[in-house]
Structure formats: structure tokens, C-alpha cells
Amino acid sequence: MIQNLHRVLQLIEGAWRKTRVLVIGDVMLDRYIWGDVERISPEAPVPIVRASHSSAQPGGAGNVAMNIAGLGATATLFGFCGEDVEQNVLQGCLQAAGIEAMIIPVATHPTTVKLRILGGKQQMLRLDTEMTNGYPIEAHQALLKNIERELSSADAVILSDYAKGVLTEAVCQDVIQMSRRLRVPVLVDPKQRSFARYHGATTICPNLSELSLATGIPSSRLNALLEQGQKLVSALELNSLTVTMSEKGIVVLSHDSKFVAPAMARQVFDVSGAGDTVIATLALGVASGIEMETAVQLANIAAGIVVSKVGTVPVDRDELLTSLTPEIELHAEEKILSLDRLRMRAAAWRSAEQSIVFTNGCFDLLHLGHITLLESARREGDRLIVAINSDSSVQELKGPSRPIVNERDRARTLAALSAVDAIVIFNDPTPLALIEALRPDVIVKGGDYNENSVVGAKEVLSWGGRVQIVPTVHGFSTTNMIAKAMRANSR
Fold first, then answer.
1. Cβ distance 286 to 247 under 8 Å?
2. Dihedral-angle region of residue 178 (phi above 0 means left; psi in -120 to 50 means alpha; beta otherwise)
3. Can you say whether the dihedral through the CA atoms of 192, 195, 196, 198 is positive or negative?
4. Does 120 lie in the same domain as 59?
5. Does the N-terminal or the C-terminal CB of the chain have fewer CB atoms within 10 Å?
6. Which of 283, 305, 328 is the last residue of a domain?
7. Confidence bin at 476 (pLDDT 50/70/90)
8. How confident is the model at residue 279 (pLDDT cuts 50, 70, 90)?
């Protein structure tokens, strides 16, 4: 269960647009050649991959920035690249993703490239092009100057260390000290044997192998390893140590406490890039002021999404929101949305290839006829949006004595129904503006309508949708219920 679900959904559905994260570290280009394996080479005992297509995307610190951007926030990326063809490919990928790239070309080094060859979903070979013998001091000076200029407008900083030479001890300490003075949180993905260069960061996020290397305690002795991790929190003046433990989940260690977020059960195809997703999601959570425990739970869900894919693939906002659907269904209030947030949620449903059904009404004094309509509507697609008239709109339609139940209570009652996925309240005489904004696949109305009298029918048909008229349950209406109550009261 996600703690503070309401705040988390607000962040995903819009608030992260105002969040800016600086990602500093080893930027790479991940290249892929995809194909199928049908036979073994006659020249050597190796499989022959029949290539079908290729792709390229930012890797290393670049993949961290891709995750930040995919979750709807602003990512500014700092690092080095070569003066080569790969630089142009990398810059093009970053620009297409909307990432602010402040990457310094260095003539003495190539752009770091990881080329992976895949047969089906299986990685057959990885070929690395890199030089790790240190960058010129002038390059590091230019890097720090760029960071200092941008840091005051940042909400969080990520140091993404892949041990390729960008994050020297001096760079790490300069960035951490500048960030501390500005009260900007710093999160570190470490690759060094010693964590000393990250002294003073907000949190360091090693996996079990990295923590084992740093402490000298084998990962098989889990309790002893985590105890030593807690000692590092005090020794390095951290707020916490956040340890990813693969199928065991993520544990947050402070100097006197331990919190474990269990891993999400997923079919795992590829763990590459999962750490990048974790630290990106954590950074956005910390930058937004949510509790570390909640941020870790969210990061666990995000990591579960990316490990179910082949290759290094960043998470995106729609996927994360869709993964929270089981939680949303248990919190009726989270189904009542503004139009802006409903657009976000509808986009997430569409990205999951789910069809959207729309119906509307006053729904004053909920009765069996309403329930039957909503259940029938839900069967017409994957997700059901119910638009309800506001109190002022009901008064214009039904008279000054209506509604009997106010709009918030009507919305809350409808949201408690399992057939309903989202509620939106509208003031207009008709829901046409909502229909045009949400573009549902199906509009459903009761049997007292026909296709020609349904508001929005022409529009939904124009984009390939349909209109469905469902039978009305005779004898049930709010007007009849009110009349019956008045007769009983007059006796």
C-alpha cells in the first residue's frame, strides 16, 4: 500500500512538471542490434544473429535523465562526450526527449558506447567503446562552472557514477557542498569501492553487491551487511542509505532505523537500467517533499515496470500511473478528478491500450436504475468515466429544490462503485466540452435516449467511436423516489 496516495497522484498527474533535477555523471550511448537466432556459425561455436533492426538511446547518467523526463519533470544533464559521430546521435536522442543537455565534448576521449546484440529477448553479446583514464582538468573545471550556474534553480541533484571518470572525488565534494549550502538534496548511484567521495550526500543508493564491495561484508550475510550500512550513514553524514536488494525489495537505512519496501512481483526480462529508474523516482519524491518511505515504495513500483522489458528502457508517467490502478480502486476519493488530472489518467489508460467509456447525468438519490446503467456502461469498455452535473447545473435542469444530494456527496457515492473508474463534475448545460476534451471510445446513455438525441454522439462517431443505448430499468427514478417520500411524509 502506497502511503499518502493522494499526494503521490497529484505529483504524477501534474506537479512534477514544476520539478527540475540536475543529473551529473557518466553519459553513454546505448546501441542495440535486434534479431533472431536460428543456427550456430560453421566458423566457430557461436550463434548467428540475423539482424532485423537497430536502435539507440541515452545510457548511464543519460538514462537517469530519460527517466526523469519520462516521469514528467525537467532533467538537466551534465557530463562529457567525444567529438565523434556518436556525440551527434546522443545529442539527438536527448533533444528528442526534451532533456536539457549540458554535455562537454572532449577531443581526447570517445563517446562511451555500449553495443548490445540481442537474439529474441536474450542478450548475446555486449561490446563497449570507452576510455577511463581520466578527463583533462580543464574539462572538469568547465563542468563545475556549468553546474554552479544551474544549481540554484534545481530541486534535486543526482550523481550517477559509472566509474568512467566524470565524478572524481573533487567533483563529487564540490557538488555536494554547493548543494548543501543551497539546501538541495543530493542522491548518489555509486560505482566506487569507497563511498568516501560521496560524504555529505542526502542518500547513497547502492545495490547489495556495491554495498558489499564498500564494506567488505559478503551479501550472503545480509543482516551484518545492513548493520554495517547503518554505520556508514553516521560515518558519511548521510540522511540515509537506500539499498536495492533485487527480489528482496529496497531497504532505507538511517542511523537508528530500517524500512523495507518489498519488491513488486514481476516477470523479469532485463534488470539493466533498473537502478537508474529507482534513483530517478527517488529524486523526484525527495524533491517534492514526500516521505522517504513513500518515495521508496514508488521507486519499487517503477523498477518493477522496467525490469519486465528487454533492454535499458526508462519508465514513463503513464506506466507508473497505470501500475497504481489497484491502489486507486481502493480509495474512492482518488477517482474524483479535475479535468486536467482526468486527461492525464485517460492518457495513461490509452497508453495501456484500454478503451474508455463515458456517461453522464445528475445521479441525484442513487437508485437501482443508476446502478444498472453504470454496470452496463462498464461492460462496453475497459474504463468508465462518469460526468455528473454540478449543483447549479442540476438546479437549472430540475428546479430550485434539486439536487437532494450535493455534488461532492454524489461524486463520492458514485466513486465507491467498482464499475466506476473516474468522476468529473461539470457546470455546463451539456457535457459536450468534456467529451471533446476526453475523446472517449464509447458514449453510453439509458433507453429513454436514441443516438440522435445523445450529446456528443456526432463527435464520438467522427473519431471512430460508438454510441451505445442500454435498456432502462422501469419504475426507478429520482423523481419517483422523491414523490414516494413526500406521500409517506404527508400521512
1. no
2. alpha
3. positive
4. yes
5. C
6. 328
7. low
8. very high
Query: How many whole angstroms separate alpha carbon 200 and alpha carbon 187?
Result: 10
Q: CB–CB of 242/203 below 8 Å? A: yes
State which H helix or E strand residue 386 sits in: strand 383-389
In a shared domain, residues 351 and 300? no
215 falls in which pLDDT band (50, 70, 90)?
very high
Do 359 and 412 lie in one domain? The reply is yes
Q: Please indicate whether residue 478 or residue 281 has the higher confidence score (pLDDT).
A: 281
Phi and psi of 63, rounded to 5°? -70, -35
Half-sphere exposure of 402 (CA within 13 A, CB side): 19
Over residues 216-256, the pLDDT tens digits come to: 999 999 999 999 999 999 999 999 999 999 888 899 999 88
CA distance 466 to 457: 8
369 and 277, same structural domain? no
Torsions phi, psi for 71 (to 5 deg): -90, 5
CA torsion 470→471→475→479, rounded to 10°? 30
Instruction: At 156, give phi and psi (nearest 5°).
Output: -165, 160
Domain that holds residue 473: 336-490
Of 259, 293, 328, the residue that ends a domain is 328
Residue 133 · residue 109 · CB < 8 Å: no
The per-type count for the chain, helices as H runs and strands as E runs, is 18, 18
Q: Are strands 258-261 and 250-253 parallel, antiparallel or unpaired?
A: antiparallel
Give Cα 430 to chain centroid, integer Å. Answer: 34
Q: Which residues are identified as catalytic?
A: 276
- Distance CA(421)–CA(384), nearest Å, equals 5
Could you tell me if 380 and 285 lie in one domain? Answer: no
What CATH number did the domain enclosing 351 receive?
3.40.50.620
Could you tell me if 131 and 99 lie in one domain?
A: yes
Of 412, 353, 422, 355, residue with least CA distance to 386: 422
- Pairing outcome for strands 27-40 and 20-25: unpaired
For residue 156, the domain's CATH number is 3.40.1190.20
- Same domain (yes/no): 318, 396: no
Number of domains in the chain: 2
Q: Say if residue 75 is in the same domain as residue 24.
A: yes
State the pLDDT at residue 274.
Answer: 86
The residues, ordered by sequence, that sit 6+ positions from 72 with a Cβ below 8 Å of its Cβ are: 12, 14, 16, 17, 317
Dist. CA 157–CA 24, nearest whole Å:
8
Cα torsion at 210, 214, 215, 218 (round to 10°)? 40
